[in-house]
Amino acid sequence: MLKEDLIKKNPLRVLSPADQGKTGSPKMGLVMSRAGLGKTAILVQIALDSMLRGNKVLHVSIGQTLDKTRLWYDDIFQDIAKTSNLDKAGAVQDELMSQRMIMTFNEEGFSVAKLQERMKDLIDQKIFEPDCLLVDGFDCSAAPEKVLTEMRQLVQGMNMDIWFSAVCHRDDERVSKAGVPAPCHEADELFDTIILLQPDAKKNCVGLNIIKRDGQIRPSSKSLTLDPSTLLILEN
For the whole model, what pTM was predicted? Predict the structure, then answer.
């Protein structure tokens, strides 16, 4: 399979067209689940798809080391290349990783102001100017509306897409009218796309419940699942 075919046949086309890139208005997406269901794997595949389409991606990892985050990319790309029989996989991987930068924060050291300062330094010094921002491990439990509003304003000012991962808890029954669980239940209007990961014991997989896409609540679309062995997104 060629790189161009990999873009067109990617299951993530359910979420965005293949030609979506730097010309569209900035979007804000959210991936939620209980701990350990594959949020990071989803974000990495969103990042790889964006890079395949020529975008630069900044992956902000909160509470996870640089090496561990890099390993997520290496493992998932290799699985994608193997299952799709990708031509010149090594060259494609080298090209993609040159379009990615990983930035790490300690859990207690992350704030919107610190992120903005570090991003501004990268851009002003012409080191790296991202088109897409991923924030993995973001704690939405404290004042989520305020912080998420600040993040949305940040990326709109820089004209880039942003994706978050957030943890929901089984014992917290709060949920928005749209079906978004706490702690993001009062901030769901800020997001253009929201994906909730839900385990499916009968099918031995994790389902991707697309609660919202392009601002539309519960859009009709083909369903997606996460393969529990490879953590790759599959289209049903």
Answer: 0.93
